[in-house]
Amino acid sequence: MTTAATTTSGDRLRSAAAGLSATVVAVGLAELVAAVVEPSASPFAVIGGQLIDLAPSWAKDAAIALFGTGDKIALITGIAVVLVAVAALAGILESRRAGVGSAILGALGALALVAALIRPGAGPFAWLPGLVAGVAAVVALRLLMRTVHPVPYLRAEHEERRRFLLWTTGTAAVGVVALLVGTAARGATRSIESVRALLRLPKPVVGAPAVPVCAELDIQGLAGVVTPNSAFYRIDTALIVPRIDPADWSLRIHGMVEREVVITWDELLALPMQEAHVTLACVSNQVGGDLIGNALWLGYPVRELLARAGVDPDADMVLSTSSDGFTASTPIEALTDDRDALLAVGMNGDPLPLEHGFPVRMVVPGLYGYVSATKWVTQLEVTRFDRASAYWTDRGWSERGPVKLQSRIDVPRRGTRIDAGDAVIAGMAWQQHVGVEGVEVRIDGGAWRRAELATPISVDTWVQWRLDWSAESGSHTIECRALSADGETQTSDPADVVPDGAQGWHRVEVSVS
Ligand SMILES: Nc1nc2c(c(=O)[nH]1)N[C@H]1C(S)=C(S)[C@@H](COP(=O)(O)O)O[C@H]1N2
Ligand SMILES: [Mo]
């Protein structure tokens, strides 16, 4: 390849476009190949996954606080923006010195290749998408550069420009089409989704008590006492949802046990199942936040499986691991006491949705999700807190995470304007596995008034509450606090979500007219 003697700004623009076009075709082809051979080896997913695991915890905490369950879209957008910048730069550098830009793009492909290979559960073709990306980017860039710097005097200038435009847009179009086909293919090969759809879960041997009629206050704007699967918050580090065929799934219980136990899907389903409503909460839930939900879970007590393995009395923790490498450290007593920590297979009457841990996850009443609720769980290692640590503990969060006593105002919403006269204040309160005994509300710092509590489903679930209020015009501050069944009053002391959960009173300002 020849190197241009002079560079004009038009040259620079064309080179940047060539870099971009080469990158688009590389990404498109690689994502298409990934969709066919191994969806979770998608370069976007594996690089994003590495970024999630390597990111400093403040960045992750900020992402969850800022974007909530949209954190993954934010990350993918961020990667795309950086990629566009690098692609343009690679094009410009390549035009200055042949080989430099293609080396950069080739290195990106190599990065995707390595990231795919070191991911837990990497399949036999995990390296292929990265390789395709690297090779396609280098070849495309080198070819496109020829149209940026054509052999002089061969053609008229406008013809050269046409040729350049044709090749760059054509190449990029191939990439976009490949990307679309890949995405469609990923959707079409929903084999796991169809396996899930055809599954029939066994009936529980121990059914959950019916939801009490008075558990639901039926107030517009108040969260329902049972959260539908489609509305259930989702928090995890998985950019691509693990797709596990139940036929390939097994759980291995090992570590400080008398005998290792391996249980398959069929063996698990043959065991007597239990059903229970349990409210799951995220440690990243801010005061007043919505990273919390309540579902009816179907599963088998973890306690029974641990008993089968025979737990060493010196052990004090179970490190659960998911197929994608996430880990959680759960105190052993929370898995063996009477709270019925479940190895869950069903959620609200359906098999677990893929993004909520299909086929099997843990659900432990009273603990935040990050120390207990491992989705796509494949291993339980019986160990000790002084011997092993879990994913979020290594990133600055507390090694233990009991749920804190909390309450929240859902109605009226913050900043809303309501009419003077009869109004209703309503919300939710929870302290799983302890239970809520009451909720108090005060307006403008006045006297605390006892709210009416709905009938709780159980101590393991949140509970609705309401209070009638004759609202006078002006602006008002509403606050609430919960009282636990063991005599604790929710603290006013504010605390951030790090390291072990937010606390303080939820405060809502409304204007009445
Ligand atoms: N495999 C895996 N399991 C996981 C996580 C994860 O990142 N990976 N996140 C945990 C956290 S922090 C929470 S709050 C709950 C959320 O469960 P949900 O997404 O079903 O609501 O899952 C837990 N289980
Ligand atoms: Mo969480």
From TrEMBL:
<dbReference type="InterPro" id="IPR014756">
    <property type="entry name" value="Ig_E-set"/>
</dbReference>
<feature type="transmembrane region" description="Helical">
    <location>
        <begin position="100"/>
        <end position="118"/>
    </location>
</feature>
<protein>
    <submittedName>
        <fullName>DMSO/TMAO reductase YedYZ, molybdopterin-dependent catalytic subunit</fullName>
    </submittedName>
</protein>
<feature type="transmembrane region" description="Helical">
    <location>
        <begin position="16"/>
        <end position="37"/>
    </location>
</feature>
<dbReference type="InterPro" id="IPR036374">
    <property type="entry name" value="OxRdtase_Mopterin-bd_sf"/>
</dbReference>
<dbReference type="GO" id="GO:0020037">
    <property type="term" value="F:heme binding"/>
</dbReference>
<keyword id="KW-0812">Transmembrane</keyword>
<dbReference type="GO" id="GO:0006790">
    <property type="term" value="P:sulfur compound metabolic process"/>
</dbReference>
<feature type="transmembrane region" description="Helical">
    <location>
        <begin position="73"/>
        <end position="93"/>
    </location>
</feature>
<dbReference type="GO" id="GO:0043546">
    <property type="term" value="F:molybdopterin cofactor binding"/>
</dbReference>
<keyword id="KW-0472">Membrane</keyword>
<feature type="domain" description="Oxidoreductase molybdopterin-binding">
    <location>
        <begin position="240"/>
        <end position="389"/>
    </location>
</feature>
<dbReference type="Pfam" id="PF00174">
    <property type="entry name" value="Oxidored_molyb"/>
</dbReference>
<feature type="transmembrane region" description="Helical">
    <location>
        <begin position="164"/>
        <end position="185"/>
    </location>
</feature>
<dbReference type="InterPro" id="IPR000572">
    <property type="entry name" value="OxRdtase_Mopterin-bd_dom"/>
</dbReference>
<feature type="transmembrane region" description="Helical">
    <location>
        <begin position="124"/>
        <end position="144"/>
    </location>
</feature>
<dbReference type="GO" id="GO:0008482">
    <property type="term" value="F:sulfite oxidase activity"/>
</dbReference>
<keyword id="KW-1133">Transmembrane helix</keyword>
